[in-house]
Design a protein that fits this description.
Layout lengths: L4 E14 L3 H10 L2 E15 L4 E5 L6 H8 L7 E6 L9 H4 L2 E5 L11 H11 L4 H15 L14 H13 L5 E5 L7 H18 L2 E5 L3 H7 L2 E6 L2 E7 H8 L2 E8 L4 E7 L3 H11 L2 E7 L3 H11 L1
Parallel strand pairs: 3-7, 3-8, 5-6, 6-7
Antiparallel strand pairs: 1-2, 1-4, 8-9, 10-11, 10-12
Helix pairs in contact: 4-6
């Protein structure tokens, strides 16, 4: 079977209006508009199979949202080819739109002045979902997200966390096979972040949907995704198992010691110098315990981004 998502040598640049500094610049730019290209995505390729839950990580401005917009048909690539569920997303065919959903943590798609349930019913009508199917899906989602009590409350009165949950229900009411989640946990408190993660995991398991999740919280990705794609400045830097990032990029190990008074110290040393460093530490301190650990994934990823 063909992969659910095919991204083949895709680039995207935005044309932005260039304004020279100063008053003269403002005036002359009124007469003669000049444009520059911002290259948001540079020649990226990857495949995603049915049922995969892949983390798509990178710093701000790396090109994550741009990529998800191309995958959902909101933007057309400047070069290369995108295929999702056998379709070109840009054609935005109704059969295609019925099978995907894009959820953006910073944007809301619900009607602000209406109770969330009204927005769900609108989605039901747009997607032509038969009433019994709608009812069943809705009750499943409401139960998984535990938001039954606020469905009749005006959306503007919901907390951010409640609203994000309602956004998810709206985005999933047509049971899409492919789900793009763009920073779904942004701004949420720790409890809500966990609720979101549990839901995403469960949704992926039960409905076997393919999910791409972007986040700049490494915790989301660590908890949910085996595979990650790391993007920086429009380039893909890594595509593989999260655990392999450590093997490939961690140049150091961390030696942690516990001293007699119970206090702990940590020292980062190059992988090749562990034995030597350990000997030195043991001769310098009275150590009750010593462990050699891999550095935190967060630190490795931060270093990957910093290096270029
Ligand atoms: N509509 C736009 N017009 C011009 N530049 C844009 C637009 N959207 C994004 N960009 C630029 O493209 C790059 C990638 O942005 P984006 O895809 O939003 O990154 P991310 O989601 O990883 O933070 C950034 O340099 C950003 O400033
Ligand atoms: Mg973004």
């Amino acid at each position: 079977m063909a992969p659910t998502i095919i991204v083949d040598s895709v680039s995207k640049s935005y044309q932005v209006h260039k304004k020279s500094p100063g008053l003269w610049g403002s005036l002359s730019s009124l007469v003669k508009r000049e444009y520059t290209d911002v290259q948001a995505v540079r020649d990226i390729s990857f495949l995603i199979e049915e049922g995969e839950l892949v983390g798509f990580i990178g710093p701000n401005g790396a090109g994550k949202t741009t990529t998800l917009k191309m995958l959902s048909g909101l933007l057309y690539p400047s070069a290369g080819k995108v295929q999702v569920l056998g379709s070109d997303p840009w054609e935005r065919k109704p059969e295609f739109l019925r099978q995907i959903s894009l959820v953006m943590g910073q944007k809301n798609q619900l009607w602000w002045d209406l109770p969330a349930e009204e927005s769900f019913r609108l989605a039901r009508d747009i997607y032509n979902i038969p009433e019994p199917v709608y009812k069943k899906t809705l009750s499943n989602l409401v139960e998984m997200l535990n938001i039954g009590d606020v469905l009749n409350v005006q959306v503007r009165k919901l907390s951010l966390g409640q609203r994000m949950k309602a956004e998810l229900v709206a985005a999933l009411i047509h049971s899409p096979k492919v789900l793009f989640l763009d920073e779904p946990t942004i701004g949420l408190d720790v409890v809500m972040q966990k609720a979101m993660r549990d839901f995403i995991r469960e949704y992926n398991k039960h409905f076997h949907g393919s999910i791409i999740l972007t986040s700049h919280y490494m915790d989301d990705v660590k908890e949910l995704c085996r595979r990650v794609i790391v993007i920086d400045k429009g380039h893909i830097m890594f595509d593989g198992l999260l655990a392999d990032i450590v093997k490939k990029y961690a140049k150091n190990k961390v030696i942690e010691i516990t001293l007699e008074d119970g206090s702990k110290k940590e020292e980062e040393v190059p992988r090749t110098k562990v034995a030597e460093a350990t000997a030195k530490i043991l001769s310098k301190y009275t150590v009750v315990d010593l462990t050699v650990k891999e550095p935190e994934i967060e630190d490795i990823v931060r270093e990957m981004f910093g290096k270029q």
